[in-house]
């Protein structure tokens, strides 16, 4: 019930290449669980923004009244990685030793924001639901921790996909829950939901 909403939410998106990227933003209104209406869209060319500083942007909504106020900071990724199983970041004994020293008891209070990190190996899925008319699916896997999100590549025409990827997240809150969701890629349409698991960090 507001024409001037304040969300104050922060989202982290990760870049792993120098490709040209556009951030697409949509604003929706929801009357109830069944009815939604698009209130406008706007786009930000991330490559045109100055790096290592917070950019305050007031973006007019295209073809609709109103604007969106955002703070966008482009900075180097720290503690986040995607790698193949054969080059797992924790596979190097020297790196494991450095990590052990970094999180030993005497260094516990050196950096209060450095809670730790989570490494997830996404190996495969088995007996997924068929989402296509051909009796197959085009599955990919999305991992979410807090407002961080990473995803695997798509394995086409397969109900038993193997991804064999290793994902590393910095942990900002030990009470966060790792959510792993499998989707079916559906071209230009929104992906179809194939299943989900939720793993509280405190259970690991």
Question: Which helices and strands occur, and which strands form pairs?
Answer:
Elements (H helix, E strand, L loop, with lengths): L21 E9 L5 E10 L8 E7 L6 E7 L7 E4 L8 H10 L13 E9 L14 E7 L2 E4 L10 E10 L5 E10 L2 E12 L4
InterPro entries: C2_dom (IPR000008), C2_domain_sf (IPR035892)
Family: Belongs to the MCTP family.
Membrane topology: Multi-pass membrane protein
What does the model show?
The protein has one helix and eleven strands; from the N terminus they run E-E-E-E-E-H-E-E-E-E-E-E. The strands form four sheets. A four-stranded antiparallel sheet has the order 8-7-10-11, with no helix packed on it. A three-stranded antiparallel sheet has the order 5-9-6, with no helix packed on it. It has a two-stranded antiparallel ribbon with strand order 1-2. 5% of the residues lie in helices and 44% in strands. The chain has two domains: 53 residues, no CATH class; 123 residues, Immunoglobulin-like, CATH 2.60.40.150. The chain has 204 residues and is mainly beta. It starts with 21 loop residues before the first strand and ends with a strand. Strand 1 and strand 2 form a beta hairpin.
């Amino acid at each position: 019930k507001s024409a001037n909403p304040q969300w104050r939410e922060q989202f982290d998106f990760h870049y792993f290449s120098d490709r040209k990227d556009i951030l697409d933003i949509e604003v929706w209104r929801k009357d109830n669980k069944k009815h939604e209406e698009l209130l406008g869209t706007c786009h930000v060319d991330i490559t045109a923004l100055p790096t290592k500083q917070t950019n305050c942007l007031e973006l007019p909504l295209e073809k609709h009244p109103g604007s969106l106020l955002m703070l966008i900071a482009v900075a180097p990724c720290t503690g986040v990685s995607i790698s193949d199983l054969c080059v797992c970041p924790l596979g190097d004994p020297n790196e494991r030793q450095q990590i052990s020293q970094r999180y030993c008891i005497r260094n516990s209070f050196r950096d209060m924001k450095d809670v730790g990190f989570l490494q997830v190996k996404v190996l495969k899925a088995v007996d997924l639901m068929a989402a296509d008319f051909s009796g197959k699916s085009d599955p990919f896997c999305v991992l979410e921790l807090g407002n961080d999100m990473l995803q695997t590549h798509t394995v086409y025409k397969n109900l038993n996909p193997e991804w064999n990827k290793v994902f590393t997240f910095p942990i900002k809150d030990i009470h966060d829950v790792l959510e792993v969701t499998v989707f079916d890629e559906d071209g230009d349409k929104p992906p179809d939901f194939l299943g989900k698991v939720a793993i509280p960090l405190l259970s690991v």
